[in-house]
Prior knowledge:
By secondary structure, the chain is mainly alpha-helical. It has 3 helices and 2 strands. A two-stranded antiparallel sheet has the order 1-2.
Amino acid sequence: MDYQNYIEINPAVRFGRPCIKGTRISVSDVLGWLASGMSYDEILSDFPQLNKDHILACLAFAANKERKVKVVSS
């Protein structure tokens, strides 16, 4: 999944938070819904402008960000 096809960072939209292209729905919104127990079908029903690829792109974005986290020991 190449999340860059679906996610953009635009300083003029949601203060530069990563969002699904063409929407004001942020990656963190989608991740929060999933974490709260919403199913893909519930999200897609509530937000018809989204599709399954958008949700997968949010997960891929988060996974990529997590891979880049560096641990600094004190």
